[in-house]
Amino acid sequence: MPPVEDDALSAAELQDQIDALTEELGDEQEALRVAQKQLTEAREDLAALRASTSWRLTAPLRSAIAALPRLRRILGRIRFARAVLANSIREEGWRATLQKIATAPRRHGIRKLMRALRGGASVALYELPPAKPALDLLALRVLIVAETSIPQCLKYRVTQKQRMIKDLGVDCTVVSWTETEKCRSLLQTHSVAIFYRVPGYPVPMQIIAEAKALGLATFWEVDDLIFDIDKYVKNSNLEDLDPEMRRNVLAGIPLYRNAMLACERTIASTSGLAEAMREAGIKDVLVIENALDEETVRTARRVNRTPKQLDGLVRIVYGSGTKTHDADFRVASTAIARVLKARPEVRLRVIGELNLPADYSELNRQIERLPLSNYATYLKRVGECDINIAPLEPSVFNDAKSNIKYLEASIVGLPSVCSPAAAFETAIKDGHTGYLASDEKSWENALLALVDDSTLRREVAERAYAHVTIDYSPHTIANTQIAPMLAPYRREKQRLRVLGANILFAPRSFGGATIIIEEMARRLNSTGDLEYVVFTTLPVNQVPAYDLVRYESTAGSVFAMGLPVEKNPQLDFENPHASKAFREALRASRPDVVHLHSVQGIGAQIAEVCNDEGIPFVVTLHDAWWICGRQFMVTGENRYCNQRKIDLAVCSVCVDNAHLNTYRQSRLREILQSAALLISPSEFFKQLYVDNGFDGERISVNKNGILPPRAQVHHASLRDRPLRFGYVGGETEIKGAHLIRDAFRRLQHRNYELHVVDNTLNVGFPSIDPAAWKIPGTLKISRAYTQETIDDFFENVDVLLFPTQWKESFGLTVREALIRDVWVIATDAGGVIEDIVAGENGEIIPLNDDGTALAAAIDALLQNPQRLDGYRNPHAKQIRLFDEQARELHDLLAQVASHSRVEAEAAVTVKP
Question: Quick one: how far is CA 908 from the chain centroid?
C-alpha cells in the first residue's frame, strides 16, 4: 500500500516558505530604497535644469519621470501586501494565512501571493444573474452577424437588408462574425439576431447560444445551398475546381449546417433554397428576395443616361464572377456559339473568370473579356451591352440561386435570357419580361429573336424595367417580406420607462448613491406602471472596455459597461468612449426619461446623447461633482473649502490642473443647464446649487429615504459589556477617519469597542490597515453592511461617529443609525444634520473641529455609558423611508415624461 500523503506542511517547511516570502519582501523594500535615492537625485537634477537651458540636463529629468511610476508601484505593492496580510490574518487566522503563503509557488512571487490571499483574482469577479429575455424587455432592434468578405453577398443580403429594416423604422446593426467581442456586446442591446452565412465554428456557435440564452429571436440566413452536402455535390461546377479548393468547399458544408440547425428560424433568398432548408429539418423558413437598392438604382440611372456605342454590334453579356460557373455556361454554350457563327456582328462579353469550351477558339474575334471590378463599373459594363444571359445547369443546387442577374440587367435596360431555375421562373414572365430557355433550341431561338429585332429588345427591356422597379424595389420587399418577419417581435411599451445611470450597481453595491438608485429601482419596478432600467459599469476583467453585458438584478434590468481605469483626468467627466455604449443601451431600452445619478468615469456626455435622441434627462445631485473639480468641496489638505458660490480663482490653487478645471466647470454647467429637472436629496443641497446660479424653480427636493428596521433593533444591556462605537466612512480624511483615530488616542479609556467598516472589501480588496488604527480600546474591522445585513450591524453599535469634513447632500448612514436607536455624533455638515436634534438623538460638533470636540463628545459618553442603556430615539418616526421617496420620485419622473410628450406633440402640430 502506498504511503498516505500529508497535505499539511511541517513547521520547518512552513518556516522556509515564510523566510522566502520575507526575502522577497526585502527585495521589494531594497528596490524602494533605490527608487527613493533615484528620486532624490532626480529632484536635484531638476533644480539644475530650471537654472539652465542646456538640453544636456534633460536626461536626468527624463530618468526621474521614468522612475516615478515605478516608485508608486513599489509603494503600492508594499502597502497593499501589508493590508492583505492583515486582512487575511484577521479573517482566517495565522495558520490559514501561513498555509496560503506556503502553497503559493515561489516563482510567481508577491503577485501570486496577493492573488492567493485575495482568492485568486486581482479584481473581484461578480456573479451576474441571467438577463431578462430580450424580447420581453428591449425595443425591436435587429443585429445582423454576417460574413462580410464577399462583396456581392454583403451588398444584397446584408447592407441592403439593413437599409430596408431601417426604412421600416427599426434599428439595425451589422457586425462581422469574426469580431467576437463586438458580437457579444451587441447581443446585449438587440432583440433579433440574423446570422448570415455564419459557419458553425466553436466561437460562432457560442455566439448563437448566447443570443438564445439572452432571449433573442435567432435566424440563420444564406443565399446558396452550402448547408446540404448531398445536394451540393450535384453541382457540376465543383468538377472545375482544383482538388484542394474542392475539399475546402465541401469541408465547410457541415459547419454551415450546424449553425443553421442551431438557430430557431431561417431566411432564404429563393423559394428553392427555402424548400431545401425545410428538407434539412427547419420548420420555420422565410423567403426574403434580393431587391434593387438605392445604390443600384442610382448607378443604373447614370448608366442609362450614357448613350450606347453605335458600332453596329450586338453584345451578349455574361457575368461569371468566379471560376465556379463553367458547367453553368456549358448549358447554353452550343447555342451561343451557333448564334456567334450565324451573326458575325454579335459579340460575347464575359465579365469575370470563365473557361470557354475548346470550339470557341475559332470565335476569339467575337469574344470580349473584362476582369472583375467594383460594382459601379460592373453595372456600367453590363449596361453597354444589349442582351443579358444567365444559364444555369438544371439541379437542386441552382434552384436555390437568386435572380440577381435578371434584376441587374433589367434595371440597366437589357432583356434577359435565363435558365428556368426556381428564382428566374418566379420572376420572369416568358416572352414578356424576358425569356426562359430550357434547352439548346430555346436558347438559340430566344437569342436570335433578340439579336435580329432591336424593337423587340427594347420592348422586353422596358417591361422588365417596369416590373423590377415596382416588385423588387426596397419599399416593396421591405413591406411585403421583411415587415411580416419582424411583426411578431414588435413590443408595445406598456409602462412608463426610465433609464437610470450610476457608476455602480448591484451586485457591485458601494456608496450612498448606489444604495439610493438600487432601492428606488426596486420600488419603482414594483409599481406596475413604471419600468426602471439601469446603466452602470463593471471592471474590465469582467467586461471588455466599453463593451456591454446585460443581466437582471434583484432591483431591475441592468446594462453594464466595462470601464477601464483611465489615466486622463478629463475622461472622468467627458468620456467619449462611453457615449457609444450608452447610446446602445438607450436605443435598446427606449426610455421616456433618463435619470442620471453619480456618473463620474462614465462622463456627463451621456446627457448629450439623450439630447441627440430627443429624450429628456433629470439629474439627482448626490454630491458636488457637477460644480467641484474635487467632487466633495474638500481641499488637497482634506479641509472643507467653505465656498458657497464656487470661485474658479479659489479652485485654481486646489485642483491639479486649473485650466482643465475651468473647462470642466463650463462643460458640466452647460450640460446641467439642459436637464429637464434637477433633484436634490436635501434642502441644504438645493440651496447650494441655487447659490451657484441654477434656477431653484427647476430643482425639486426628493429627500432620501432609508430602509426601516425589520423590527425593533435590540441593543444588549450596557451593564455587562463595553460601549460600542461604529464608523463606516472608510480610510479617508474626507470622512474624518483621522479625527476618530486621534480622538481615541487622546483618551485614557479602554473599555470600548470601535467597529470600523472596510467598505472596499465588498468590491474585492481591503483598504484599512489595522496597524494604522492604534487605539487603546478594542478595534474590530468588518465588511460593509448591505441592506440585508444593516440591522445586524447597528444592533452591535451604540454610537455612530460621522465626523465628515464636508457639507454633504444628505447622510444616509446617519438616518440608518437614528431610526435604529443609535446615538449619532456628527459634524455640522449640511444635509447630514437635518434629522439630528442635538441632545435628544445625537450631538453636533463643529465642521472645522480638529478632533477636540469629537474627543470630548466620546469622552462624555465613556464617562457615563449608562445614559445610553435602553436608549430610544424620540424622533425616529420623522425619519423618511424609501417607500415615500420612491412615490415622490415616481411623480417627478412621470411629470417630466408627460411634459416632454406634450412638447413633442406640439412640435408635430406646428410643423409645416
Answer: 33
